[in-house]
UniProtKB/TrEMBL annotation:
GO terms for biological process: protein O-linked glycosylation via N-acetyl-galactosamine. SUPFAM superfamilies: Nucleotide-diphospho-sugar transferases (SSF53448). It comes from the Bacteria. This is Glycosyl transferase family 2. PANTHER family: ILEI_PANDER DOMAIN-CONTAINING PROTEIN (PTHR46396:SF2), PROTEIN O-LINKED-MANNOSE BETA-1,2-N-ACETYLGLUCOSAMINYLTRANSFERASE 1 (PTHR46396). One of its GO terms (molecular function) is beta-1,3-galactosyl-O-glycosyl-glycoprotein beta-1,3-N-acetylglucosaminyltransferase activity.
Length: 321
């Protein structure tokens, strides 16, 4: 197996990038992998020191078969930078692994993604292999679930891999958005991966958000495609609260994974589809902390007697603290 090339996207966080590169270089297949680092330009003069530090790290990165640093002359912004980089890489390569500058990888991440690319290459229902999964402290996989991976109708970009024939043709303009916006049925179906998905697409199309991944989500949805996720995460995000689309008050612990527990041995499954119990748990990960769900859960957890809590938990699928 020849490892897929790696695209790493960076901007103005040298401390994060340093950690990301160190973890990535410690991967089993790093020395055989060709790494391209895309460095976006500063938005203003005040950012130049940080973006220059990022570029220096990119040019001096070691531990890979080769390292190419691509420095943007100007600031493209989150969405345009990633879309341009992905397009450039997929024009040259059939397969690609994608990492962002705040993603720490387990030493087994590259092998997991590469073997997933190999296993599902001919299964066009699978759009991508994801390396991240919600922490098992809150993400309750059924005890009877027998597999190391699961399928999910939501794209996650915290370490992922895909193929050219899945990527090419993505409608970044979301040309049929007016029809989607007017269709309750389509919006409900799109929200299978989380009730925040339709609102995020709305925000993107209304110019309130500058992102690319929700458009990938919509493309997958239109084509009936899924992603493969590991039961035990191979990555964790160290940039919560500092990234373009993160808020300072976000509950970072909710998304933190102990990647030392990532599995070195795993198996993939043919003809896999999403498991309704896992999907229900997965959707909870994306419920805002101040939502009615969380306020109800916390009130019941603190105020009601144990027997009543047990019954309510059974019927409402609430997980008490």
């Amino acid at each position: 197996m020849t490892p897929a090339p790696i695209a790493l996207f960076a901007f103005n966080r040298p401390d994060h990038l340093r950690q990301t590169l160190q973890a990535l270089a410690a991967n089993n297949l790093a020395a055989e992998s060709h790494l391209t680092i895309f460095c976006d330009g500063p938005r203003n003069a005040a950012e130049s020191d940080k973006t220059n530090a990022v570029r220096q790290l990119a040019k001096t990165a070691k531990g890979f078969a080769s390292v190419t640093a691509i420095e943007r002359d100007k600031n493209l912004g989150c969405a345009a930078s990633v879309i341009a980089g992905l397009t450039q890489m997929f024009n040259r390569h059939e397969r690609l692994i994608v990492i962002e500058d705040d993603i720490l990888t387990s030493p087994h991440t590259l092998r997991f993604l590469n073997e997933g690319l190999e296993f599902y290459a001919n299964d066009k229902r699978i759009f991508n292999i994801a390396a991240w999964s919600p922490p098992l402290s809150g993400f309750k996989i059924p005890a009877s679930y027998p597999h190391d991976i699961y399928a999910i109708p939501r794209f996650n970009c915290w370490g992922w891999a895909s193929w050219r024939d899945r990527f090419e043709g993505i409608d970044w303009n979301v040309s049929d958005y007016p029809a989607f916006k007017a269709s309750r049925r389509q919006r409900r179906a799109f929200n299978a991966g989380g009730d925040d998905m339709s609102p995020m697409l709305d925000a993107q199309m209304e110019g309130k958000l500058d992102t690319w991944d929700i458009r990938v989500d919509y493309w997958r949805f239109k084509n009936g495609q899924l992603g493969i996720n590991p039961v035990r995460s191979y990555t964790t995000n160290i940039g919560m609260g500092s990234g373009t689309h993160c808020f300072n008050n976000i509950d970072a612990e909710k998304y933190y994974n102990d990647i030392t527990k990532a599995r070195a041995m795993y198996s993939f499954v043919s003809d896999i589809n999403f498991n309704n119990k896992i999907l229900k748990e997965y959707k909870k990960t994306y419920i805002p902390q101040n939502s009615i769900y969380h306020r109800t859960r916390d009130f019941i957890g603190k105020k009601l007697p144990p027997k009543l809590k047990t019954n309510i938990k059974k019927y409402l699928h609430l997980s008490f603290k």
